Amino acid sequence: MIFFRVHTRPGANKPNNMHKRINVLLSFIILVNALVAQISNDSANKYNDNHKKNGLWEVYLNEFTNPTGKDKAIFIGYELYDNGECVYPFTKYKVKKYTVVFEGKKGTTSAPVLLNGNIKFLYPSGKVAYEGQYRNGRPVYLNAFNYDKQGNCTMKELLDFANTYNNIDGTFYYQYFGPGNKLYKRGYYRKGDKGWRVYDDKL
Questions:
Q1: Using one digit for the tens of pLDDT, what is the confidence trace for 52-108?
Q2: How far apart, in Å, are the Cα atoms of 13 and each of 105, 153, 161, 177, 178?
Q3: Residue 51 gets which letter from DSSP?
């Protein structure tokens, strides 16, 4: 599974296609804040006045946190909708080239459980390609890494969903590091029914 297709040249001033890279990373996540209160069925799966999905919707997930059918799911997560637009959906990924490690309670196909725990996707070298933490079916943080042939980290992306902008639901704090752990980009972002919005772009 390729999480990113980032080609960062040493000495470049800023990364290219930053929003595209965020989109790829956010394919793994289901929501944009990390509240700890569990969402009940009564408050999820709602439509707005125009009969468009709005707010939190249940999604069934397999052992890799990929969306699947209810009969194959061992986890339940939540996706956030903004007037019919799915803000951050889970997306199916090929995982054959990675070792996947999950720390937390797993359900069964007959009794899926709310997603709580830490997940890591490891390269054959043992280095982390992707890691995330989920609480009550929603992400707390997500990190991703690329390495060169010598094993040096050439790209690091960090998304902090607990760090919102003025407590606006759906915002998150994003940081992008290139070769040499140089910080190229940071700020608060959100994707909604009108596309990406930058709340505070600091670099």
A1: 999 999 999 999 999 999 999 999 999 888 888 887 777 676 788 899 999 999 999
A2: 43, 18, 26, 12, 10
A3: S
